[in-house]
Amino acid sequence: MYFPQLTDVNLEAFWSEEINHKLALKHALLFTTIDDEVHAIVTDSSLSEALNYYAKTALEYPIVSLDQESFDRLKNKFLEIQTGSDFAQMHTTSEELIEVEDDLLEFIQNSQDLLSSEDSAPIIKLVNSLFFQAIQKGASDIHIESQERKGEVRLRIDGALKKHLDLERTIISLVINRIKVISNLDISEKRVPQDGRTQISISGKTLDVRVSILPTYHGERVVMRILSQSEHIPTLESLGFSEDITSDLYRLLNHAHGMLLVTGPTGSGKSTTLHACLQHISTPDKNIITVEDPVEYNAENISQIQVNAKVGLTFAAGLRSILRQDPDIIMVGEIRDSETADIALRSALTGHLLLSTLHTNDATSSLSRLMDMGIENFLISSTLLGVLAQRLTRKLCLSCKEETSLPSVITSEIGVPGDGVYFKAKGCKACDFTGYKGRQAIAELFVIDDKVKEMMKEGYNDHQVREAMKQRGMQTIADKLKEMLIQGETSYEEAIRVGLMDG
């Protein structure tokens, strides 16, 4: 008997009350819609069992066969839905719980070494499996949202949010309560935002998780940031910075005093770069102290202070206290206000090397940002060593990227060859159907040398300084993006998103 074959596809589950999905799943029979028509789905390894069961039903859908991997992917989606509906009907009788537990064990796919199993209720298994799957996929954040009729779990992978699964409303509140319990938060309080931390152990690794809970119109939403321990702090080379930037940055880090800034939007990897710099210069004869909000990397050879506004421990207060601790190198998580900026610059002036971050779009505009905070021109020029502006660019998946051509209007506008070979994202199982796999840090380094100090003295604005630096050979983020585009490492769409037009 011949059925149409489909391979390497990502189909959505078709769930209907008319079908006994529990029995169908047991007999390896699934359902999906292809071109708006419902189809029954089978796979070669369990073909006879599925067809025997199908013959007993009154259903008359066309049958399509899938390769094993695509079939398993669709089956997991059915298991997620079934787990959801089982939870909705869940009572406290132990028989029903055991049945759901079995389904859930299949749903988590053999990740038994997850966390501790002291309390083996299905909801704990579900929360544990969420962490497990997020880490397997390399997610940096887990978003759990309550919506009007259902709840949704999304994962941030390579900087972009991707839907993971839908859960019923009743389950979402159970999941959020479970997360509150492990983060030592108040379960009864649903009206005010709450922040907490928790530690999870998966496959022998300990991970810190930062938890933020926010009340919304339809119920609470949770965002969990998965933080790394010191052994996971990357080196500057492994982040993907070009050799010239790495060597220039290392040269700046050798200074005994002065200030080095890393700028960029939220989520562009500024904290990671700062910690990579600290690991590079950390030696037993140096006293390194940081003040962060929050402490994202738990580093062993560094004293880290966590900002706590409730008790008056702000960046400025923390920085003042640090200066009495005889530091060699200070790292301030972020310069947010003129008070912090003032103390930071003065401490850099009095013989400390200070690293910090600032929210600006490019490296040169950090000069005017500091001036806006009321810092005198002479103080900036005498302490600032350099500014690194950075972005994280998603790289195209090598398994499925497709050749494409760019219209001449675009190529002339962005200044790349009109007859070049460019690539676009497609999507396959290797990249979880996103078209991108992994990210690369790209940056521009603005070194404050005598020429720049001269320009500042003469009152040049950001734009004039930037143009002068470009003429002197400074490679901008846009230049790096063009390079990646020409080399086929990223797509035009991603380059635009990251800042190709920012110049």
Short description:
The chain is α/β, with parallel strands linked by helices. It is built from 17 helices and 19 strands. A hairpin with a 2-residue loop joins β2 and β3.
Description of the molecule:
- Helices cover 36% and strands 26% of the residues.
- It is α/β, with parallel strands linked by helices and 503 residues long.
- The chain has a seven-stranded mixed beta sheet, sandwiched between helices. The protein has a six-stranded antiparallel beta sheet with strand order 7-6-5-10-9-8. A four-stranded mixed beta sheet has the order 1-4-3-2.
- Mean pLDDT is 85; it is low at 87-105 and 107-120.
Q: Please provide the count of β strands.
A: 19
The percent of residues in helical segments reads 25-40%
Computed Rg: 27 Å
* Helix-and-strand structural type: alpha/beta
Helix count from the secondary structure assignment:
17
Stretches with pLDDT under 50, minimum 5 residues: 87-105, 107-120
Biggest sheet, spatial arrangement of strands: 13-12-14-15-11-16-19
Sheet having the most strands: 7 strands, mixed
Mean pLDDT: 85
Q: So what's the overall shape? A: globular
How far apart are the first and last residues' alpha carbons, in Å? Answer: 61 Å
What percent of residues are in strands? 25-35%
Topology:
Elements: E1 5-6, H1 21-26, E2 30-34, E3 37-43, H2 47-56, E4 63-66, H3 68-88, H4 94-108, H5 122-136, E5 139-146, E6 150-157, E7 160-168, H6 169-182, E8 194-202, E9 205-216, E10 219-227, H7 243-253, E11 258-263, H8 270-281, E12 288-292, E13 303-306, H9 315-323, E14 329-332, H10 338-349, E15 353-358, H11 366-372, H12 377-383, E16 384-396, E17 402-404, H13 408-414, E18 422-424, E19 436-447, H14 450-457, H15 462-471, H16 477-486, H17 492-498
Parallel strand pairs: 1-4, 3-4, 11-15, 11-16, 12-13, 12-14, 14-15
Antiparallel strand pairs: 2-3, 5-6, 5-10, 6-7, 8-9, 9-10, 16-19, 17-18
Helix pairs in contact: 3-4, 4-5, 5-6, 9-10, 10-12, 12-14
